[in-house]
Amino acid sequence: MMKRTAIIMAGGAGERFWPLSRMSKPKQLLNLSSPDKMMIEEAIDRVSGIVSLDDILIITSELLQEPIRNVLPNIPKENVIAEPAKRNTAPCLALGSAIIKSKYKDYKENQISVAVLTADHTMTPIGYFQNDVIKAFEYVENNQDIVTFGIKPYRIETGYGYIETNSNDQSEIKQVISFKEKPNTETAEVYVNSGNFYWNSGMFFFRLDTFIAGIMHHLSEVGSKIETMTNLYSTDFGNAHHGCFLPVKSLFESMPNISIDYGLMEKATNIKVLPATFEWDDIGSWDSLDRVRTTDQSKNIVSGNVSIINTKNSIILNESNLKDKILSVIGLDNVVVVITDDAVLVCDKSQVQDVKKTVEDLKSRKEFKFL
Q1: Per-residue pLDDT tens for 61-79?
Q2: Cβ(223)–Cβ(215) under 8 Å?
């Protein structure tokens, strides 16, 4: 019998959602795609019917560990893991694999399957997503392959990586030919029009033995540390650490800063893609809310105490906790206006990617109270 587990990566900073997103409350802890739930709550809801809450690991930063524990009381506190350092997704998944291996000692590596999921994307409808998750689990549990979800592109997008398949491959789960980095507009247009490219969703499924063998072979400087980390955790798992687990700190810090795409997926030959039946979106910047939130008759997204006159195609959010503060917007088109208790953002929608530059500017000026 297989033990199904999940790793949710939730360490991102979400700097493009400043001033709402802050270091201690980034986008996965915000109600962005839903007015009622934080993004990380949505991520748990999507998979909880397939993977037990006790079998979901959340890997995040030390700064976010306690906030995440507080908003997810049904997840065991010891399952919210603080990374010892920022080392990208390959070391993160090596750490997660070691923890899973130590936690489920009564299972062999080939009896444990793992879903690697994200905390800041949207997937709808949930039933379609869950059907695809089950399909991916069943496939990797019976094959020594790693499966990723591919999203059929519906626009020319330069902000995502792409997955190439063979146009003659009619299989439900297709062989991956190559991974392509974020393209320029002309290349993205070629990819989308070809019909055999998918957006890389950043979600993966594998059996534990398949992943460990792959990372040992293709990225040994990371894979070779898994067994040692497993042994260190095996005598301790079950304790809810505040901060990182110190015995693995120096080991983790010695790993290279490398993504799982570069370190394993682009090198291995046993990578398959399951074209998703659900709708997917990477909520990466303010303008992406247009694709997931309800608008008014002037195509505005509005929240909080606001007065809007002759304004359209805009995002107007009053997120201040001060009851006597009103936000008035008059005669604007295609803008983002966000106010909090201590900050105001006014930005043309075409330049929302540059919000991150404001964060960088504040860091350079040591204005950390606004971050």
Answers
A1: 999 999 999 999 999 999 9
A2: yes
Contacts of 333 (CB under 8 A, 6+ apart): 311, 312, 313, 314
The burial of 96, by beta-carbon neighbours within 10 Å (0-12 exposed, 13-18 middle, 19 or more buried), is given as: buried
Can you point out the beta strands (E) in 125-249? 146-151, 162-165, 174-180, 197-207
Query: Which residues, including other chains, have CB under 8 Å from residue 136's CB and lie 6 or more apart?
Result: 115, 147, 149, 173, 205, 274
What is the three-class DSSP state of 95? helix
The residues spanned by each domain of the chain are 3-282, 287-370
Q: Quick one: which of 64, 69, 71, 47 has its CA closest to 12? A: 64
Q: Quick one: tokens of 188?
A: 């993205």
Q: How many CB atoms are located within 10 Å of the residue 137 CB?
A: 22
- Res 307 pLDDT > 80: yes
Give the dihedral sign, CA 234/80/277/193.
negative
Burial 205-235, CB ≥16 within 10 A → b, else e = bbbbebbbbbbeebbeebbebbeebbebbee
For tokens 């063998």, the residue is: 213
Q: Domain 3-282 belongs to what architecture?
A: Alpha-Beta Complex (3.90)
Is residue 318 classed exposed, middle or buried when 0-12, 13-18 and 19+ CB atoms within 10 A define those classes? Answer: buried
